[in-house]
Amino acid sequence: MKIALLQIAAGDTLDSALDRGLSACRRAKGLGADLALFPEMFSNGYRIYGRPPSQWMGEAIPAGHRFVRSFEELAKELDMAIGVTLLEACETGPKNSLILLDRFGRRVLRYSKVHTCDFDVERHLTPGDDFYVTDLDTESGPVKVGAMICFDREFPESARILMLKGAEIILVPNACPMEINRLSQLRARAYENMVGIATCNYPAGVPDCDGHSSAFDGVAYLPDSDGSRDTCILEADGSEGVWIADFDLEMIRAYRRSEVHGNAYRRPGKYGLLCAPGVEEPFVRPSRRE
Fold first, then answer.
1. Per-residue pLDDT, 140
2. Which string of b and e fits 125-141 if b means at least 16 CB within 10 Å?
3. What is the DSSP string of 184-203?
4. For residue 174, what are the CA distances in angstroms to 16, 38, 39?
5. Which pLDDT score is estimated for 288?
6. In the annotation, is 165 catalytic?
7. Alpha-carbon torsion 268, 194, 264, 167, what sign?
8. Which of 28, 219, 266, 273 could form a disulfide linkage to 36, CB 3.0–4.6 angstroms apart?
9. Would you place residue 42 in the very low, low, confident or very high pLDDT band (cuts 50, 70, 90)?
């Protein structure tokens, strides 16, 4: 399965985001992509810092907006799935959302960021309520796909829940500096859950972003190898462009049937503290951008 990571800037307007996004999707199809993934909140380029909340909140668009409908039509035209991201208008307040369109232009997954960065400006967003997995139709057969967004990766529970729901590939729209520790988090999420993870970030030049979109397939050991292998199958540089991550799904599936990670030897009866109410927080909540 080839996933195109659209490491591109959105521009300053919704129209520029749409034009640049449509063009990048066409380029992705030309490179053989089965799915094209955008960075976080592409409809407004994640331009929510340094601006009054009343201003950027007014840029939220409904899921039925022509911005999304244009990608529905393009997905159908190109016979390619598209993961489009947006600042979504909702009755409870705007959400940081991903809508996954299959290659027939149908909406098969709609996910809103659960772990909003409430220590900063994202406290004005409405968090999502759950993690979802869908069967995505591809030319080579169905693939179970889930999603988490940026700060969600900081919480092992995000990827773990998606794995338990059957996800084989996790899509991660992103908007922050992808330095070694954040890349290591993604590597760990892939390794411990035996799942492929594809992360799309904005390029260098977009405020507080530096490119380095990445893909990890989670396969650490092969039957004919004495040691472990590097699970990173792609790391982009900082430049703007379309990057193709080629996931070997048969290898991932065979690995999941035989290895010891993921759900093989979990002891959920011992993990009650993770969800226990009233647990005292050991740290003061910080006030900084993540």
1. 81
2. bbbbeebbbbebbbeee
3. HHHHHHHHHHT-EEEEE-PP
4. 19, 8, 5
5. 53
6. no
7. positive
8. 28
9. very high
User: Is the Cα torsion angle 234, 160, 111, 255 positive or negative in sign?
Assistant: positive
Nearest by Cα to 198 from 254, 260, 139, 136: 136
C-alpha dist (Å) from residue 288 to 49, 63, 254: 12, 30, 42
Mean pLDDT across 232-259:
97
Q: Which of 117, 150, 200, 209 is catalytic?
A: 150
Q: How far apart are CA 74 and CA 56, in angstroms?
A: 27
| Residue type (1 letter), 43 | S
- To the question of pTM greater than 0.85 for the whole model, the response is yes
Q: Is 76 a catalytic residue?
A: no
Tokens 């009650």 found at: 272
* The two structure tokens encoding residue 69: 């409908």
* Residue whose C-alpha is closest to residue 49's, from 148, 154, 126, 125: 125
Q: Rounded to an integer, what distance in angstroms lies between the CA atom of residue 39 and that of residue 6?
A: 7
Catalytic residue among 29, 72, 95, 113: 113
What homologous superfamily is domain 2-275 in, according to CATH? Carbon-nitrogen hydrolase (3.60.110.10)
